[in-house]
Recover the amino acids of this structure.
């Protein structure tokens, strides 16, 4: 099954299921309030983490180092903010996991490891060569 299809059908289905279950336990008004509260708190923390990441990136640039981790971290914070804006508990959980520096670092390291493994597999069939011509152009 296509993962793109699963993403757009599966995540809303999980969100609806969780909203119904949690709404049945704590009530509809409390569920809606909780959704707004998690969005507001999450966006506040996303702003704080984004500012910290910008400062760390500027410090790395000042020290003449490439801010690679800060760039990836900033992108994951932006994804976390997007996930926190979407109403639902599953996406809020994923968003908060991306906001926590320890879990974000773990996810980034596994992503980098996975891409390095795939990069090494794809480079096995490459043969480098150089063409040397003996003939010189004569006028």
């Amino acid at each position: 099954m296509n993962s793109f299809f699963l993403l757009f059908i599966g995540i809303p289905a999980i969100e609806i299921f969780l909203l119904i279950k949690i709404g049945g336990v704590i009530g509809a008004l409390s569920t809606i309030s909780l959704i707004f509260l998690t969005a507001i708190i999450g966006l506040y923390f996303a702003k704080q983490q984004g500012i910290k990441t910008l400062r760390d990136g500027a410090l790395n640039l000042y020290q003449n180092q490439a801010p690679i981790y800060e760039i990836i971290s900033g992108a994951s914070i932006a994804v976390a903010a997007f996930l926190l804006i979407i109403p639902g508990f599953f996406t809020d959980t994923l968003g908060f996991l991306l906001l926590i520096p320890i879990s974000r670092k773990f996810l980034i390291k596994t992503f980098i490891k996975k891409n390095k493994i795939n990069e090494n597999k794809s480079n096995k069939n490459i043969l480098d060569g150089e063409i040397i011509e003996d003939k010189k152009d004569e006028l």
In short: Helices lie at 3-26, 28-62, 68-85, 89-99, 101-122. The chain is about 80% helix and 0% strand. The mean pLDDT is 86.
